[in-house]
Amino acid sequence: MSKVIVLGSGMVGSAMAIDLSKKHTVTLTDRSQQVLDKVKAKCPSLNLSVLDVTNIDLLKSTLKEHDLVVCAVPGFLGFNTLKAIIEAEKNVIDISFFPENSLELDALAKQKKVTAIVDCGVAPGMDNIILGYYNEKLKLNFFECLVGGLPKVKKWPFCYKAPFSPVDVIEEYTRPARYIENGHLVIKDALTDCEYIDFDKVGTLESFNSDGLRSIIFTMPHIKDMKEKTLRYPGHVEYVKVLKESGFFNTKAIEMNGQKISPLDFTSKILFNEWKLGETEEEFTVMRVTVKGTNVQGKEETIVYNLHDEFCGKTNTSSMARTTGYTATAAANMFLDGLFQEKGVFPPELVGKHEDCFLYILNYLKERNVIYTKTIR
User: Fold this and answer.
1) Alpha helix locations (H) across the chain?
2) pLDDT, tens digit, for every residue of 248-260?
3) pTM for this structure?
């Protein structure tokens, strides 16, 4: 039985800690004792530790006695936290999805003889793992990921609920989207190239550009066409564009009645209640990953993986926590079982390239009823 420490006890972090506690001794950390106690009530076997990860010395000393770190801190803390974990010579599975390039820490990880698997969620995460696997099987020329997490009940006007902070969602709506088109890097505004796409069990959803390719821009430069698009209910994009174009996402402070506040902070505060996902509110995750390429016989193949996952009423676990968190705990158990031992920083596509790792993660998710269905055309 290994000793695992989970940094961050939010919706996904707590789900991961509970899942890992089935096989390992798990310590869950957060800066709030109240949040930790709430998770402990669900899973009494967890050890708890109040920890502020920005206190780097305390973080490193806390990690000492553990065999593996699972990092689920907010994105803005992610890069520095991951760097500190690597400096502490601890192996890590990371889902903090920070904006910086994780590969900048590869040399440090190799020097410290550390394995760091990053971006290990649903998307980025499982879509990368699928891509990495088929990159070994086919000469790929196309990759597309369509993904979204949505509430079952559509509440006007946004028809959306976020499992994380509105600031993080708005950042996705404002950060320029990078794509690969015909072998060239193309940068487009987020929320553009809207298309309507039909999904089983859901109906028609709206897809739009978002900056989700991340590491594969650098690790898969031979694939001529690659894109990721976010999914929402039809109409959502128009309302968000109105806010964006009207200046509600601006970060420069404005003065009102002698007080200075940024429009973004104001908007986030307003949207917090509008977009906050209730603890037992039913939601679902939908994802479609498509890869195209030629096989060894020179024949063109199209492989499509579809995911439709829903809130689990039995365990009161959100779909986003299940699909994101269980991918990371699959990778954690895979590492602890000795299937992946390479040293350095590894985005998921560099893990999925190994067939035993790919199958391990798929089977682990299937055991938890997170099921990817495959079709070949």
Assistant:
1) 11-20, 33-42, 56-63, 75-87, 106-111, 126-137, 166-174, 216-219, 236-245, 263-275, 319-336, 349-352, 355-367
2) 999 999 998 889 9
3) 0.95
